[in-house]
Write a structure and sequence with these properties.
2 copies of one chain form a homodimer. Chain A contains 8 helices and 13 strands. Chain A is of the alpha/beta class and about 280 residues long. Chain A has a domain of about 190 residues: Putative cyclase (Glucose Oxidase, domain 1). In chain A, strands 1-13-11-5-7-9-10-4-12 form a 9-stranded mixed sheet. In chain A, strands 2-3 form a two-stranded antiparallel ribbon. In chain A, strand 9, helix 8 and strand 10 form a beta-alpha-beta unit. In chain A, helix 1 packs across helix 2. Chains A and B meet through helix 1, helix 2, strand 1, strand 2 and strand 3 of A and helix 1, helix 2, strand 1, strand 2 and strand 3 of B.
Chain lengths: ~280, ~280
């Protein structure tokens, strides 16, 4: 069977980026004897040139300098072996699962929820939809994604495609170098950062077909009220979340494909995750 | 600019899997007004249907049960929060970088070598070449990949493409459930598992254009002699290694694309890595 995600992706790539030029290459394949029904690739037919520029890294460099939720500790890294003494260098890491750019698996909030290592891998390559609420968040750190934001995105980009990964861009990424600004704690001890609103979460889960969601903040939920509504709605529906995404401004609002290199330790409620977007 | 890896991949997919049927869809795009020069996708044009079956997970489930090198400790996982008490579940992890399915970055063996977090991301999506030495390794655990093995692979599959990731399949994957058999220690305390031979490593680095290499064993080098020649050759040339790959028998020897979700902690000599192959 044909790999539909690759073909659909390429159809879309071709439509955007110069279909006719690419069709020339495709037509050449048709002209080559036997290619229309070939079951094995021609020797050397697969080429992924080095130096292509359309992979974006949506992952923060993970270190003890990154802000973390007050419940958690920053990454600890301890060199244990050295090239001079042991012939190789290696460190030991101690980390809380929900630090850095990381996944929330359903079991993080849902009793009996699935762990990250058991999520089907076909959910980890998905159309990426980026909905920005950054202009509003710049004025109101307690703002949330509303259903109207999703509908406005769809008026421009079309309906959220089946099997999509929906990320909100709040602008918090830019605050990472200043952890106090990122956590944004007020005098009363409340943290202020935007998130998915409860109604938008219910809409995405109930009215659209998504595999997971992401945010450039540390929490799917806005933090000031202490609600877990977005977490419970998404994770309760078996979706995963990715928190503390980086570089969402480097990718288009529609048309990219996200690749989620999630944690695979047994019984993972989450963990550090490498996230790419291919445009 | 066009994303060449996607287009080349799809040309190859189309040639293998039914070009004419897919061309029908492509032709429909041509017929739609404006598509040939469109710069933005048509609304809803991006579809990655759930349930496609051509993503393979080359990552072992990471747990304290996996075999590790004697220098290292198995993964430790400590639950620290519970849904009943804290509203969420989360664990703390302590791990040695070079355990589970993991990356070796150049700095693991090379003074001044680059760390995993600084490797360019365009090296992490690459044509996957799988060279099997499993039949020989079943009789001789100390066997190594030879230059002749690579040349024999090329006679069947064509020259190793530029920017490739070359993995050896030794059959060790099947021993993972039995750590003693995987480590394969003899009465004298020597471990026996296959690896890349020094000459083959030099050939791949000097005569072919590769981004990295992988193995289903715990070491790029065969283990009995304690040599580090393969490590030093590959990492010294700025390539990365992936050790303890899983499921290499699930993917073709040629034609798949590997996606390396590598560690991104600052100064990583390596670390747990999520690896997919898209066929």
């Amino acid at each position: 069977m044909c790999a539909p995600f690759v073909i659909d992706d390429v159809r879309e790539q071709l439509s955007r980026r110069g279909f006719l030029a690419a069709l020339g290459g495709a037509a050449a394949l048709v002209a080559a004897p036997g290619n229309a029904s070939a079951q094995t690739p021609a020797p050397g037919a697969v080429r992924l040139p080095r130096g292509f520029r359309d992979v974006h890294d949506l992952t923060h460099t993970y270190s003890s300098k990154l802000p973390v939720f007050p419940s958690f500790h920053p990454l600890q890294m301890t060199p244990k072996f050295s090239i001079a003494k042991d012939g190789f260098f290696a460190s030991e890491l101690t980390l809380d699962e929900h630090t850095g750019t990381h996944m929330d698996a359903p079991m993080h909030f849902v009793p009996g929820g699935v762990s990250a290592d058991r999520l089907p891998v076909d959910r980890f390559i998905a159309p990426l939809c980026v909905v920005s609420i950054a202009s509003r968040a710049a004025k109101d750190a307690d703002t949330t994604l509303a259903v109207d934001d999703v509908l406005a995105w769809e008026r421009t980009h079309g309906r959220i495609p089946a099997g999509a990964f929906v990320a909100i861009h709040t602008g918090w990424d830019a605050r990472v170098p200043d952890p106090a600004s990122f956590i944004n704690r007020d005098a009363a001890g409340k943290n202020h950062a935007p998130g998915f609103g409860a109604e938008a979460a219910a809409f995405l889960v109930g009215q659209r077909d998504i595999v997971g969601v992401g945010t450039d903040t540390l929490s799917l939920d806005m933090t000031a009220t202490g609600t877990s509504a977005a977490h419970v709605t998404f994770l309760g529906a078996g979706k995963y979340g990715i928190e503390m995404l980086a570089n969402l401004t480097s990718v288009p609002a529609s048309g990219a494909t996200v690749i989620i290199g999630g944690p695979k330790h047994e019984g993972a409620s989450g963990g550090p995750t490498r996230v790419y977007a291919v445009v």
